[in-house]
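Take a look at my tokenised protein here and describe the backbone shape.
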Amino acid sequence: MRYRQHVTEDAVTLEPPSPATASVVLLHGLGADGWDFAPIVDELELPPALAPRFVFPHAPLRPVTVNAGYVMRAWYDIREFTPEGRADAAGLAESSTRASEYLDREIERGVAPGRIVLAGFSQGGAVALTAGPRYPHRLAGILALSTYLPFPERLAAERSGANAGLPVLLCHGRHDPVVPLAMGVEARDVLTANGYEVEWHEYPMQHEVCPAELGHVAAWLTARFAAAG
């Protein structure tokens, strides 16, 4: 499928040949930008009938404490590489709101919320796992790669009933030195305990994406959009 690129200051958008009937909003990882995951779209080889639009937002520029205050694209500050200090609550809330605004924009463009997937890699996945369960309209699902669930103790009280039992795809590398596998497992277990329909895959890789993983992502997206009608 040949996509058309539409580039703005805040995002890279890939438009399908036919009017979009589904959307994937994918948030990149720390220090990257919206272009980082654009190349995977062709590798997914999704059926042309799905006609999904892919939106890759750019995170804002901000100093990151663990990188000596260096200014880079980041969805939130990371003060230290511990479960407690990994996510800045205020920055995470700000970026979760921003992610929800991208979902709102897709609805305004005519895509039904039940045909929208919120996705993310690493830090972007943490935002997706924060914003998605709290979003007030039923989504198609959440896709989170090599990531973790920030403030897991808050999920039960803050989640939206509209997305109860939502399908979630979690993929993680067994040898990830950035977000250890145990943090992904914790996300899986907390989401499952809260009633989400979690599909879990792990791979013999580090903090990256592999072909087998892309195959699982493509199959999951196809199933989600097919189920949405």
